[in-house]
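Final report, closing paragraph on structural work. Over the funding period we assembled a curated collection of sequence-structure pairs, and we close with a single example.
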Amino acid sequence: MLMEQLIFLCKDIYENKIYFIWNIIQISIVGVLLSVIFQNVFEYQDVKSKFDCMTRSSEIYMFRDETSEQMFDKLCNDEKKLPGLAGLYDSLQKKLTDSDGRIRSFIADSGRKFYPADALAQSLAHKSEFSQTNVERLDLVAVSENFFEIFGLEIDGDSEMFRRSSESEEETIPIIAGSDFREICRLHEKICDQKGRQYEIVGFLHKGAYYIAPGETSKPICLDQFIVKPSRIDKKDSTDLLNYFITTYFIAEDNNFMNEIIRQSQEDGLMSLSVMNFTYQMNETASELKDQIVLNGSITVLLFAFCLVAMTGNVLQFISGHKREFAIHMMCGAGGRVIAGRLVMQIWCMYLCSVFIVLALRGVSRAAFLSLFFLAIYTGLLELIPVCILRHETIQTMLRKSYE
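Its predicted structure, as stored:
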C-alpha cells in the first residue's frame, strides 16, 4: 500500500509540477520572512537587554574632538606636548579609579584595518563569506579588556591570555577572530600581517556576535569578519594618547568628570574637546530594529494571506480535477483516508522542500527553526482541507461532480 501511495505521489507531483514548485516557492518565502522577523525580534531583545544593562541609572558619554588640524599635527609631532597629554591621560585614569566603579569605560577603536599576509589572504579568498575587498583589508577593532563583559560576548578559547596582553609588551599579539575565521584558522595558530607582525589567535567569537558603537553608526556592528586585538596605550606615543580620548566610551551618571578633563586640556593648551551623550542614539538603534520588525511583519502577513488563498485554491482544484479518478479508486476498495493521504503527502513534501530552502538561505539558527515550526503548524492546518472534504464524499457524488 505504501509503495502504491509513493507511486501516486510521484505521478501527482509530475502532473502538477508547476503548481507544486510555485507552492514551494510561496512557503519558502513566508518561511524566510518569518525567520527574518524572529531574528529581528531576538536582536531587538538582545540590544534592549544590553542597553538596559549598560545604562542602568547611567548615561553613555564620549569625548568629541574639535581640535583644529594644525593643532592636531602639533600634538602628534611636538615632543613638548607629550608630557601634557600623558598628564591628561593620568588625570582621567585617576578619576576612573577614584569613582569606585561608578564610572565605567571601555575602548572600541575600529579606525584601523588588518592587512593579512599573502598566505592568509589566499585562504580567505576561497571563502564565499569574504569579498575580495575584505580579503585584502580585514576589519579590525582594538578593545579594552572589559569590552567583552560589557557587551556580553562569549569567547571560545583563552580569554585570559587576551586580557593579560593589554598590560604586557609581548612580540606576539593575541587576537580574537570572528566566527567566519573558524574554518580557515585554528586556535593558537599564528598569523602575520603584511608588515611581518605576528599575531596568535587565542579565541573565536560566536556567530552573530556584535557590539554597539553609537559614535560610528546607529546599527549594531557584527563581528563575524572582524579581528579583535587588545588596546595598548603607550604613554610615550602621542598618537596612542590622542586615539584614547576619541575612542573611549564612558558609562556614568553625569559628565562632570569629563568637563574637568576638558578644562584641564584647555588650560594646558592641548586638545579641544566637548562631551557627546549617546543614550538617545542608543534608543534610536533599538527603535530602528523595532520598526524593521513591524515592516517585515506587515509584508509577511500579506504574503501569508496570499499563500493561504493560493495553496487552498490549488488543493481544491486538484481534488476537483481528480474526483473521477478518486471515485474509481474507491470502487476498487480504496478508502477516503487513503485518497486523502495522496494529497496530505503532497502537502508535506512541499513543506520538506521549503525546509531545505529556508535552512540554505537562513542557516541553522534558532530563528530559522522557529519559522519552520510555525510553517509546520500551517501545513498541518492545510492538510485538514482534503481530509474534511473527502470524508463526506461518496462514490456517487464524486462521479456526479466529475461530469459537472
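The CA atoms of residues 121 and 135 lie 5 Å apart. The longest helix spans residues 279-321. We thank the funder for supporting this effort.
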